[in-house]
Amino acid sequence: MELTEKDLEKFIEIACQCFQKLAPGMSAFVPNEPVIALNQTDFFDFTGVIELSQKGEQGKICLTMPESMIHELLGELGEDQRTEETSLDLIGELASIISSNAREHFGSTLGISIPQSLTQSQTAGLQLAPMRFILPLSRNNLTSHLVIALGSPQPSA
Prior knowledge:
alpha+beta, 3 helices, 8 strands, 32% helix
């Protein structure tokens, strides 16, 4: 599963459309310049993780957001409770929607797992492939990251 520039653009489009369809009345998420990170990813307060597989290759997609951004989204969706539980539910659902839409682009042979929803402290043990594409998405002076890490994770030392 190698990513081309066109694939990255598609992920950006998929992520932005996900938020727009979720709450059409809210202000748009604006993509910033993608970044390539080697063995380093900063995770925010809540992260949704989907494992991917295709033709024997594997990887992960992670959507990570600060708590204040998740709480804004919950409010715009009409959810009065802004708890850790509702935040974890939403971040997992968002990661799942983005991954499911990616399947349309990459084909039905793209296997996707059920989402894992993690707090920032739980991401410490998350194993990702060494090369990661970080796609920053900004809204209302807040930024989330869509992390695409394709390939096998590095073995722990």
